[in-house]
Design goal:
By secondary structure, this protein is mainly alpha-helical. It has one domain.
């Protein structure tokens, strides 16, 4: 085998290795489905218990917020699975504009946004079922710190994307119109 053939073989192996991501995608999708089905089942169970008078209104609210949290966590798994699939396998899946993932940065930003909501819902559930025995300040500050860090990440990422988009527009303008008179 020549050196050129070895490089071509290695190149093909590396190119095909991206399809191993499908194993993770299937696992994440299965986890998404399991959590979503579990959440739906639990939600209906809690509603039936409420109708039968087996849970108080406060318990009902707490349990339903927990189900919302589970559904959001399932959504996180779905977004990761979909993002990895579109990044490594096939990017032609029809999706709404807010869910289009073109780069790993897009996936990170989308994930950070969803995690912020999940943390807020978890804290809301904790606050709604608060029994006044445990200090609410510690989980509140912890949640706020993580949300602030993720918000800062999203702000920086948004600024970088804006600068990148502006540079891309300038490059396209230069290519379309040629160099400006001052640049010649």
């Amino acid at each position: 085998m020549t050196q050129r053939q070895k490089h071509a073989t290695i190149r093909q192996l590396i190119g095909w290795s991206r399809f191993f991501i499908i194993i993770d995608v299937i696992g994440l999708f299965a986890a998404f489905m399991a959590l979503m089905l579990s959440s739906v089942y639990s939600t209906f169970t809690v509603i039936v218990q409420a109708v039968l008078g087996e849970v108080s209104q406060k318990e009902l609210v707490g349990k339903l917020v927990q189900q919302a949290d589970t559904a959001l966590l399932a959504t996180v798994l779905y977004v990761i699975a979909l993002g990895l699939y579109s990044l490594f396998i096939d990017d032609s899946i029809p999706m709404p504009p807010w869910l289009r993932i073109r780069t790993l940065g897009d996936l990170k930003e989308l994930l950070a946004s969803v995690v912020i909501v999940v943390i807020a819902v978890v804290f809301l559930g904790f606050a709604l079922t608060w029994d006044y025995k445990v200090d609410l300040l510690i989980p509140g500050l912890s949640s706020a710190a993580v949300i602030a860090a993720l918000a800062a990440f999203l702000w920086v990422a948004g600024n970088e994307r804006t600068r990148h988009d502006e540079l891309q527009v300038k490059r396209e303008e230069i290519e379309r119109c040629g160099p400006r008179r001052e640049d010649r």
